Amino acid sequence: MPSYPHRTTREDLRVPLPDGTELYARLWRPATDAPVPVVLEYSTGRLTDWTATEDARRHPWFAGHGHAAVRVDARGHGNSAGLPPTAASADLLVEDGAAVVRWLAGRPWCNGRIGLLGTGPAGALALRIAAHAPDTVRAVVTACPDGPHRLGGAVLAADGHTRATAHLADAARPPDPLYVGDDWRALWLARLDALEPPLADWLDAPAAPAPAAAVPTLAVAGWSDPSAAAVLALAERSTAATPVRAVLGPWPHGLPDELLPEALRWYDHWLRDVDTGAPAAPALRSWLGTRWSADDPWPSPGVRQVGYGLDGPLRAAGTASEDRWVRVRSPQHTGLNAGSYVPHGRPADRPPDQREEDGRSVCFDSRPLPEPLELHGSPALTLHPDPLSGGALVAARLCTVAPDGTSTLLTRGVLTLPADPVDPAAPDPVLALAPVGATVPPGHRLRLTLSSTYWPWLWPDADPDGFAVDPSRSTLTLPVHDPATSTDAAPFRSPTLPLPPPLHLTEPLTARPERVTVHDIGRREWRTELSPATDGTRTHPDGLVRAEHTVTAYRVLTATPLSAQARTDRTLRLERPALGWDITVHTRTELRCDATHLHAHTQLRAEEAGNVVFAKEWHQRIRRDGG
Question: What is the DSSP letter of 472?
């Protein structure tokens, strides 16, 4: 254990809710008689297995620096009692979180001040809880606060059903008898009976508003994470009364170790009245490919919006000058090299060389750049479409092309054109591309590509004819950053964290590739299969043996609209050999589409010692337009 200012203790406890439900919690705190502030991480993850390793690294570190660190399993998850909230009771997670905050604030070892910590969905939940209890919650650190289930009016195929399958499987895991005793089976069976697949509720929910901060907030994400836009939105809405400081870097999904000292500075300032200078930090610190930039305020006056016409600075090769319209009609497998929607740092997550994708798209190229070009912010593409292109899917990618022809993805965006006839006097539609922080070297070219499909990120359009645009009335607007208007920010450094508890990993003897694509030429079919590198069997120090196996598969016929299909299979097995406890949970989600709906077939099977104790199937028809 590294040396920290405080020795620490650890204990497991139960947090009572107003309705009598008890939530399972783990507490690390400094060995002191003086009351201290609390850093709370409240999540649907399972603290005794799923997050145990990460919890054991980070929470003792916060405790060693003077904060009580508490990790709580949400209602109906892990070893907590109660039933998992459904879509109709989703606000219960927030209400429970606020109740946990109030309970912790009343403990004799707490000084009454709470800071919230969360990643992904838990990061978004932390923002909502803070708004529910702003008098007690004094600070939030949110990392990658979730992403949308729709992009530009199109429905996500990537991540959506995979995440829904994992969500169902994780919620179907039983409480652990080592921690809850003989009540585990009754709690489990009640939990299983209450479960519903979440995908339809996710897609039917109205678009979430831009996140807002109710208390001082530190927001973190990687540029390639779908939450980067949410982090920038938080920074833009910073006020003197509710300051927000944001950091965007070259990280995968999650809270990187190198930002833990920034989180500690944030908590020390707002929870312990220590003047750490945290509020004086720049509004946004970001990695721009060659340097860390510090911009204050954000949006930065050093970023100017520069327009690139699609018939001038950017130009499509081979388009006849007398032809007003450029037709975009892509094969159905355009998008196979998109990479992961939520990057977790695995080698196969990153989009590879985009030349194959460029060849399936219409490309508009610039001349070689005479000097470096810093991009910092959110590009936008204003399109003038043919009126007959209503309802078409437009996928745009911005790449940088090296002198040797290598095409590297910078950012991308999606727009579904209005289905109804458009008033000629109405403004042209604008496609928002994801935020980007990058430096394009001199001698490289910018390349904007347009395609009418982007599978398997998005469910394809029913119309194979694509769309047409008028380049002379279409413009790409880029956020060009003047390096002279910002200062260089210091790089971040990882702290010395405790060693995680020993976890023995047994990898499969025949490990599957993380991502493999097969082209069946005879059938004109493309198949992609993904298997995360996290598969394998883990033996925990407390004797738990945990095994996971997940396979996600996509298929589409090159020239057949609406042939796209997706499937995810997930198997979880939990064993305690010393107790004779052996649980297996299987979930599967299969999806196909027609012009107006997604058709989902979901299966759940739970086994105890090889015997099926619960099985259920759901067939759902989900409107693509969310109506």
Answer: G
